[in-house]
Specification:
Elements (H helix, E strand, L loop, with lengths): L14 E4 L9 E7 L2 E7 L4 E4 L11 H10 L4 E11 L2 E2 L1 H6 L5 H10 L2 E11 L2 E2 L5 H12 L7 E3 L6 H10 L4 E8 L9 E6 L3 E12 L6 E9 L5 E7 L4 H12 L27 E2 L5 E6 L2 E2 L2 E2 L4 E5 L16
Parallel strand pairs: 1-11, 7-9
Antiparallel strand pairs: 2-10, 3-4, 3-5, 5-6, 5-7, 7-8, 10-11, 12-13, 12-15, 12-16, 13-14, 16-19, 17-18
């Protein structure tokens, strides 16, 4: 490392606001939206610190990335990117989440068995140059030069294009390794913590069985519906939840669901296992007879589960529960 310039203070990553379509025009740069952990890398002369979107340290959980950055960087720098883990040629959010473990021995084992990757898409500092106020076109040019000196494929420059058609191809292919497209203003500075980028995510729908529900935290009314799909063995697997109901709708729905409470609810994978939405209340749910079907909108699937909470669209009394199959989640 040739430069020992002091690093800028920790900042919050620049964020994105959701839009319905990809913006067009000469002012935009497009990038694939990776399905991983957002990560700011502070690469100093003596150490490397990785920070999550919330400001929590990640370097202890991803020591292999910190080591690559320490060995490969030719100057002190601050990078913005996304951490991912690949299992059998596909990104796995579950495997990525498994890295956040208190046991150092497990982290060391997983860092060797399922090494992470770091897709870098912005540069806030390069050597003594603070680039936060520089326009994106200047930051991107400097980042491309900086990343060309890295010698490990696990830390790489994320693709970018000015071609709208190329961006739409990325959007059409999203749902596996990526979950949409990010658009950035080429003439804008880096704006920490601000929703200064645009994200466009692919929205899909699925018909799901309501296999259970959870009560709300502060009132004995329905808080969320637990969604299930049948696999080839005829097992009903928990795939996610929806909570996008008004308070009035939840109150009206509660007695209807309480009349359907019956074990087991889910006969395959049940709620309460490791997932993005696990909480202390994850095991506290009411099983239902598999009678009700709902249509929900979702944006992404990871490990055969909805990556995020879904949007309730409508009840489907015309749909038989057994018609609600896992195939709906396939690309």
């Amino acid at each position: 490392m040739t430069s020992s310039a002091s690093l800028i203070p920790l900042v919050a990553p620049m964020e994105a606001r959701l839009a319905e379509d990809i913006p067009v025009g000469d002012a935009w740069q497009y990038e694939p939206k990776w399905d991983g952990f957002r990560c700011l890398a502070y690469v100093g002369q003596r150490n490397v610190r990785l920070f999550s979107k919330s400001g929590k340290r990640l370097d202890r959980y991803f020591p292999e990335i910190a080591d690559i950055l320490a060995r490969s960087a030719t100057s002190t720098c601050v990078l913005d990117g996304e951490l991912t883990v690949r299992i059998e040629e596909r990104l796995s959010f579950g495997a990525l989440q498994a890295r956040l473990h208190p046991a150092a021995s497990r982290i060391e084992r997983l860092s060797n068995q399922t090494p992470a990757h770091y897709a870098v898409f912005d540069c806030l500092q390069d050597g003594a140059r603070n680039l936060i106020d520089a326009p994106l076109r200047q930051r991107r040019a400097g980042l491309a030069d900086l990343m060309s000196k890295f010698d490990h494929p696990s830390v790489f420059l994320s693709e970018a294009t000015l071609d709208e058609e190329r961006a739409r191809c990325w959007f059409d292919a999203s749902g596996g390794d990526t979950d949409g497209v990010i658009a950035k203003d080429l003439d804008a500075p880096y704006q920490p913590g601000e929703r200064a980028m645009i994200k466009v995510k692919r929205q899909r729908t699925a018909d799901c069985v309501v296999g259970g529900f959870r009560y709300a935290a502060n009132e004995r009314i329905v808080g969320s519906l637990l969604l299930g799909l049948y696999d080839d063995a005829g097992k009903l697997n928990h795939v996610g939840y929806t909570s996008a109901l008004s308070v009035a709708e939840r109150r009206a729905l509660t007695p209807r669901l309480e009349k359907l409470v019956a074990k087991p609810g889910f006969t395959g994978r049940a709620p309460g296992g490791p997932s993005r939405w696990s909480t202390d209340r994850s095991g506290d749910w009411q099983p239902l007879k598999p009678d009700l079907v709902v249509e929900v909108q979702f944006d992404h699937v990871t490990d055969e589960r909805f990556r995020h909470g879904t949007r309730f669209l409508r009840w489907r009394p015309d749909k038989a529960p057994r018609q609600c199959r896992m195939e709906q989640l396939a690309m």
